[in-house]
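protien #1 (seq + structre)
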Amino acid sequence: MHGPTSPGWLLVALCAATGAYCLLRMRSSVEEQRRAAGGEALMGFGMAAMAVPATAFTPPAWTWPLYAAVFGAAALRALWGARSSPHHLHHLVGTAAMVYMAVVMAASPGTHHHGGGAGVPLVTGVLLVYFTGYVLLSGARLVPTAVTAGTGAARWGDRPELARACRLSMGIGMVAMLLAL
């Protein structure tokens, strides 16, 4: 990212922490949660790597096609999973956005990190609208609701509100990265 490095490092920390928590969620006893957590961990760590400030590290040119390939494969997996769960549609949009950002960075002459190219303004705008709406909706879903009597305490890795908070964090990170594109 160009500009002050502090926001870039904060975004790296947010995405890496989210990715680490998602790795821990992969130990859940709930199969669907384990599957979703793997894709979310990949997104978190991928976003953290892409957000490293350019003043600290400029990745080699081969990095961007590698990102596009990894997230393209993740997009195909999300597309396959979308037939059974609508949540995979969000993963599909997220992985497609990562492929898009990697392609834009690869196509940016002389620049191999955030801020190098504008991409296609229409695609960037559509992704910004989607992720901004997702962030607002996810934030509203985090508003506490009444606890049903008799529900047992879930393990901290199985708590749905923490999973939603992670998804919210990654949505915020995606908005920040798209704005810097």
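ok now protien #2
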Amino acid sequence: MTPAARVQAAIELLDGIITAAREGGAPADRIVADGLRARRYAGSKDRRAIRELVYGAIRACGPVPENGRAAMLRLAQVQPDIAGLFSGAPYGPAPVVAEEVAAQGGVAPEWLARRLAASDIAGEEAEALLGRAPLDIRVNTLKAARDGLTLPVDGEALLAPNGLRLPAGTPVEQWEAYRDGLIEVQDGGSQLACLALDAQAGETVVDLCAGAGGKTLALAAAMQNSGTLIACDTNRQRLSRLRPRAERAGAGNITELLLNPMREMEALEQWRGKADAVLVDAPCSGTGTWRRNPESRWRITAQEIEKLSILQFRLLEIATGLLRPGGRLVYVVCSLLDEEGSQVFDRFTAAYPEISATPLTLSAGRSRGRGMRLTPYHDGTDGFFFARAAKV
């Protein structure tokens, strides 16, 4: 493919991504994968170049662009060499006409950028949210040790004691160490959030929003495969991914539990007042993960954030009911908005006098309210807020 043809292909994929963002359709990675698969004439270099153009354009736009062409014209403002490819060459984009306007730049739609700024995420701090995420892995201590593990590519040691950072795009899932469960892909910030719970061998621990189980597996390793670890979620499809991952990791102390939304305690009744620790990795807007999913900032609405904050509070209430006296919980969101982080936690601790916030002593992050915050700019991790509390 010619460079101009690659640009046109990227424009067509961007059209689909923009439509999906407005209508709640498929995520960008799926649209790109399906679109490149359909273009059988595109070689590996073409596919890589098209993907780079697509995600470059997404990162270059703040609000949702009018269409893929406007998004690519915005990228051409950032990368001037692209502008000359709007020449009308065969299979390439048509020439730019006088009345055409490029999409608007920025970190996010204006209303969302204001919300971030109100949470002290602005300037370089905000711009870092749209950088490229590294590839972090966690060495599974049920099977290996970080210092004694030999991998095809040397990794940089993270502050998380079992974490390593590899170059982006490293094919770790093709490695024998991955197939044998010696390593798992997990962001360094996510690893630190798990450490905050301080799960111990022999305890009863609940991962209340386990999803596909990334944090669950980290907790199982911290517990040395001893005790009871209950992995819960309301999404059957996500939870179903945990079992093969646990088998590969050698994690045998996990009990999977599918919950019914709004009726969670019916399934959790046998653990009421018995849990030593509960991890509440709550659903959120995901503003801290834009490096991985940059188009997700086009999908967020103010109404959704309000609904999420209500759900986050309710999940903390459920966690309180599960804890024994003296038990502890950690609240985690991969959002940098205070209205999903410190403000939710403050309302929760104010409403439940039996819950007392406890300090966190980790090797990264900065204080935010009664918890801590990690950001790509300061910590090189995904963005997280997390806080810990104990039940009196």
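The two ends are 66 Å apart (CA to CA).
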